What does this fold into?
Amino acid sequence: MRAMQTPDGFLPTIWTVSVTRLSSLLRDITPEFDGRAHIETLDVGFEEAVTRIRERLRTEDCDVVLSAGSNGEYLRNRIDKPIVLIRPDGFDLMQALTRARHHSPRIGIVTYGGDLPAFSAFKQQFGLQIEQRSYSNAEEARDAVAELVALGCGAIVGTGYISELADRAGVAGILMYSPASIRRAFEQAIDLARLLASARSGPRRNPASSDARYSLRRLIGNSETMVALRDQVRLYGISDRTVLITGETGTGKELVAQALHGASPRRDAPFIAVNCGAIAESLLESELFGYTEGAFTGSRRGGRVGLIEAANGGTLFLDEIGEMPLPLQTRLLRVLEEREVLRVGATRPTPVDVRVIAATHCALDRLAADGRFRRDLYYRLNVLRIALAPLREHPDDIPLLLMNFLRAAGAGAMTLDDPAQTLLLQYAWPGNVRELRNLAERLAVLAHAESPLSALTRPLLLRCAPELADAAASAPVAATPAPQPAPVAADTKAARGTLDPARIADALRRHGGDRQRAADALGISRTTLWRHLKAMEKARL
It folds into this structure.
């Protein structure tokens, strides 16, 4: 069923995709959004979901697909539709751990793609025996659950897929998602659908662009660094020239781009943001430039307006521009020079009036010197330059930022004593403002769990963020990738395949039995190490 137009406005179509117990939770929440969106649940997953969606898109259309975990990530790179992922937050984790504690004192957590940032804080807060694993495919998921069961975990918290694997293994499977996280995802999906529909309908005025998201007031801080940044944004905002924003991860590059848009004469027109590193290369071209009907197999009837055209009259923000493939860099250069866009499959270009703001955490000049970024595009982007300082270079803003984040997280008024403030100022903040906001989220969860909580002390901060105690070890090198542990073996294939049991035993002995550190030293994943240990155990029997 196609999204409809109602007397109250646009009614988007959202397809939810899940094959696990998450489906029933989605169905429970769906009726709450009657009248705001047409929502349909597809009880399929992975390749079957891709096939079903592609077949339906030949005769139907949807605006956004909503999914979660590994299923959602699998769909992201395989279908030509925006994907909204259901993401658990600190409250979801707290509630899931509380439920898990009723089943077992020893708990496992399995997440897709990486560890939960708040894991260490929760582990200390609840005083529980918690083991955490992550997975990137079905085999790793099964291995992680089997390992946790073997370690004696009587309850395993995770995605729908993980919770079902846990149930099959005879332990309690606890779903990580809550009704609140489902509602947030639906709200995001509706907002995204409305944004895209509004942007693609033409260069009309967009009242939403004048809201608080585009205010200079969001650039919080009283230091000379932040005062100078706000002045620079005001100055560059009134210009129509291209801006390149550079800075480490977490310094707020998109926030600055939004403020530039809000300070510009284009403030009432669309602001379209594209993360060049988050969209699969195969989809990025059609997303940016659009396509004509029949341009490729599975293309939408009537073609599609690309995001560059969608930003016509407004601002196009290209985040992580350094990750844009070289062929698309050539096409983007033409847009900047000729002010026209050529859709995929088209022969006649379309004029566009758009201001481009690009951002990167990489050194584009080095990439250009290495031939990984077009030098002419670099010069075309680097007209006006804003270099964002890392948080460690303006530490006086940390207390003010933290209090603002705490209020936004609903933690209420809090005070910060001197030892706690000293601890915050000494830390290097490798994740910058994003890392500080994550700490505020953890503190907000703690404030709700241990109400009343009105004072932030050094012990409390260390309880939520033990990494604060070792500031020197956290100091990053700007624009330099974090070093990866080097494999001990010269032959990496051998390191992944057949490892000498003596080497494994030696690594475990050198690292005091810590499997993660031993795995890092061996150049393998913790799951692979666990498989080797199981094989060694069977060989001894």
